């Protein structure tokens, strides 16, 4: 993972579209943008069926934005040029792990601590000026976010709030919200990073293709990766909070081997500020010089992260062929056209973020809100849970809804 980004940052290369796909039956593309194998007729369930009906009254709904992206894809039958709007029906999230009584108590303590925060430092420097928490930052502090940080620090009640505050400060200082699609756009003109499809666990798939490197080494190259990670998070479905990463080194140039310091910079961002976000990372067509880099960088990779790395595996058991690129053994004929893909991804992600913000406002703008609720899944908001807990039938009501951690 760090090797690819650092390698992209190390050597400017010419654009090189992937053209050698496996012979597969031509896929069928449906109106909602989903791709199925030839001869398969069942149209997948639409994501909007899971969403709050009240959103359908807004001027531009999340469903309309999704369908707009799908309509763009339909203009070129048989060739996919825009992101998929949802996983296939058979791709299902794993149920969330049940918390022990001790873990739940630690979560509640952390939630109380975070809710007491009114200001956050603007930089990591000593005696940095502070500023009030913004609504976007409060929205970011979801129940699942707090649990990810607790797991990352092995449930340390001391370290978890430090890490959370550190990331909030980093997001301000790094300028995550200021890196717009227009600013990042030149980095992706050749399609060196592509967000497309979902794996068998309904994790969004992010492809890194070093052979398509098109820019010289600048800060914006790493900012590009952060931007794409944020878009991956935007497109996660209810009940899923991790991604699958694919790095394809086919046709990449040997060039300059990335330095360990470059790799450590990327690893620091991913492991410190995006903990528990990586579901799996698949590295294919690994050349000898990158294999050497992985050996050098391996001591700096967290052991749990290292366990998620897979090298030169057949990807079809991990991603449904109907949502896997043909160049990687799947059935999807994908052609990257920046003028088509980039606006479609931007519009789709903006629509999802807007819908989540509307649900968060409707739920009372609570820190610790459920991401499942925010993404339109079958879960109560905090306000709804508090309301039902005061009624005689609270237990039954909560059981019927599956609780705030249901899928």
Report on this model:
With 407 residues, this protein is an alpha/beta fold. It is built from 15 helices and nine strands. It has helices at residues 2-10, 62-74, 101-115, 135-140, 143-152, 159-174, 181-184, 219-234, 260-273, 288-297, 303-307, 338-362, 371-374, 382-388, 394-401, and strands at 28-29, 35-36, 119-121, 130-132, 193-198, 204-208, 243-248, 278-284, 309-311. It has a five-stranded mixed sheet with strand order 5-6-7-8-9. A two-stranded antiparallel ribbon has the order 1-2. The chain has a two-stranded antiparallel ribbon with strand order 3-4. Strand 3 and strand 4 form a beta hairpin. Helix 1 (2-10) crosses helix 9, helix 2 (62-74) packs antiparallel against helix 12 (338-362) and helix 3 (101-115) packs across helix 5. The longest helix is centred in the last third of the chain and has 25 residues, at 338-362. The protein is globular, with a radius of gyration of 21 Å. The two termini are 28 Å apart. The model is unreliable at 5-60, 69-76 and 391-407 (pLDDT under 50).
Strand runs, count: 9
Question: How would you classify the helix and strand content by structural class?
Answer: alpha/beta
Number of helices: 15
Low-confidence stretches: 5-60, 69-76, 391-407
Strand ordering within the main sheet? 5-6-7-8-9
Spatial extent as radius of gyration: 21 Å
Key features of this structure:
407 residues; alpha/beta; five-stranded mixed beta sheet; two-stranded antiparallel ribbon; 15 helices; 9% strand; disordered C terminus
